[in-house]
Write a structure and sequence with these properties.
The protein is of the alpha+beta class. The protein has two domains: 6-227, no CATH class; 319-469, Porin (Beta Barrel). Helix content is 46%, strand content 23%. The protein contains eleven helices and ten strands. It has helices spanning 24-64, 68-90, 101-115, 125-164, 170-195, 199-209, 212-221, 223-227, 238-245, 251-262, 267-293, and strands at 6-8, 14-16, 321-330, 339-351, 354-369, 372-391, 394-404, 420-433, 441-449, 462-469. An eight-stranded antiparallel beta barrel has the order 3-4-5-6-7-8-9-10. The protein has a two-stranded antiparallel sheet with strand order 1-2. Helix 1 packs antiparallel against helix 2 (68-90), helix 1 packs parallel to helix 4 and helix 1 (24-64) crosses helix 6 (199-209). The longest helix is centred in the first third of the chain and has 41 residues, at 24-64. It is extended, with a radius of gyration of 32 Å. The two termini are 36 Å apart.
């Protein structure tokens, strides 16, 4: 699968990579990741711009009824800004790229492999590397485009707020703020996804990071290196010294200047007081930023006043799904179960505190005892449910079910709807997180079937279920 190549490790010693060449899976994985995120980000950006223009159009139509002059002026201003955005997007180039560490690493690794194709086990190195590089650069362009859009919508928000303040457009402005917030949050989520490298990516980057050749390449060619001159491993390198010290005062010059300024009476006390004031201001600014950012870390999100975001809104459909199973057994005597109820369900997270879902249940018969095991079909059920989070791990749950509680031997008998029984459930559940590779959580449910009194034969009104989340 791999051939042997000798590289130089960070300590200067030669290492034999042996079976550690970068595989074709790395190029394919990078290309797939970049292509997927590029497409998603492009769609999100276009969707946001389309919605914002539609919302602004509704505002202008409403404003035209009371102040046609202002509505016309705002419309012309809006069209001019959106046109300017299109022009700026068309002019986007490689310069002024938004710096994203993970994307910079991927880009630099591809450039490095282009210069060192012997490290790749690919039949067509140039073609596949070029394809991957195109996708990565395309993703970079989408992030650059997102920055331009964020700048535009910030200006539009400020303009509309100033022009429409006090004119009864509070609801419309809040809606725009929500759209902007979710877009910014989505962009940040895509940046986070770049950090979650796949197995092939992690393996290749770990290998490359062990080599002095790649480390030196990153110090000279990465985007970070173009923003800040990174130190090299050779402190006597004249080029590095000249580049890093260009335009900067030396330590000797700084010391001489301080001695001259502080030689006057009282200068040292004043200097110390200024240093304390500067430290106090820095601490105050740090605390202020921390309070504004909260738990969002480095996210540059402008939170609308009084707005509680739905953290599920920016997630994909499949990421908002959760899968659950429950299992209960009943026995007539001894320890051998006569029947077992097996349930499977899938829920969709509407937001952080509510879930709706559907599922199915199957009642499996085991026979009379251990000496007489016989697998039979004792029933089947269809379920729907909704859950609201109350506090902590406690949830209020409700649901509607249809159950066929008779033994059956073929699917055809299930068509008789008169033999199905309705159940209306309401109750409480407690969810507990699990440290398991298979199950993420367990839930204990206590439910009251308020339709059980209408069932013939009548079933017990109180149900106890134990479920597991996958």
């Amino acid at each position: 699968m791999f051939s042997c190549v000798s590289l130089q490790a960070q300590d200067g010693q030669s290492i034999d990579t042996g079976t550690h060449l970068v595989s074709a899976r790395y190029i394919q994985s990078v290309q797939s990741t970049a292509s997927n995120l590029e497409d998603k980000l492009d769609k999100k950006t276009e969707k946001l711009l389309r919605k914002l223009q539609q919302q602004e159009s509704r505002i202008y139509k409403k404003l035209q009824k009371t102040d046609s002059t202002k509505a016309k002026a705002l419309l012309e201003q809006s069209e001019a800004q959106y046109k300017k955005l299109e022009q700026n997007i068309a002019k986007l180039g490689k310069k002024g790229n938004t710096y994203i560490p993970s994307l910079d690493t991927l880009t630099s690794s591809l450039k490095f492999l282009q210069q060192n194709p012997q490290l790749l086990q690919l039949k067509d190195n140039a073609k596949q590397l070029t394809g991957a590089m195109d996708k990565v650069q395309g993703l970079q362009q989408q992030f650059n485009k997102a920055e331009l859009v964020k700048k535009l919508i910030k200006e539009r928000k400020q303009t509309l707020t100033n022009q429409l303040q006090g004119l009864g457009f509070i609801k419309e402005l809040k809606q725009i703020n929500k759209q902007v917030y979710y877009y910014q949050d989505q962009v940040n989520e895509y940046k986070e996804l770049l950090k979650d490298h796949k197995k092939a990516e992690r393996k290749a980057l770990e290998l490359l990071s062990q080599t002095k050749l790649f480390k030196d390449f990153m110090q000279k060619n990465s985007q970070l290196a173009s923003l800040f001159r990174l130190p090299t491993n050779n402190p006597t390198d004249p080029a590095a010294l000249n580049a890093s010290l260009a335009g900067l005062q030396t330590r000797t010059q700084v010391n001489n200047l301080l001695q001259q300024q502080l030689s006057t009476p009282g200068a040292m006390d004043q200097f110390q007081q200024n240093m304390q004031d500067a430290q106090s201001q820095l601490s105050s600014l740090k605390n202020k930023l921390g309070n504004q950012i909260g738990n969002t870390g480095s996210k540059d999100i402008d939170m609308p006043d009084g707005f509680k975001p739905n953290q599920q809104k920016t997630k994909s459909f499949k990421d908002r799904l959760e899968y659950n199973t429950d299992f209960q057994s009943q026995r007539s005597s001894g320890y051998f179960p006569t029947t077992s109820d097996i349930g499977l369900s899938v829920g969709y997270k509407l937001n952080d505190k509510s879930i709706i879902g559907i599922g199915a249940a199957y009642k499996l018969g085991w026979g009379k005892n251990i000496q007489n095991i016989k697998i039979t079909h004792q029933g089947i059920g269809l379920r729907s449910y909704i859950e609201w989070k109350i506090k902590g791990g406690f949830w209020l749950t409700g649901g509607y079910e249809q159950n066929y509680r008779q033994q059956f031997n073929s699917i055809a008998v299930l068509k008789d709807l008169n033999k199905w029984q309705q159940s209306g459930l309401i109750g409480l559940s407690k969810q507990i997180n699990l440290n398991s590779k298979i199950f993420k959580r367990t839930s204990v449910k206590l439910l009251w079937d308020f339709l059980s009194y209408q069932q013939v034969p009548r079933k017990q009104p109180v149900l106890f279920r134990v479920g597991y989340g996958l």
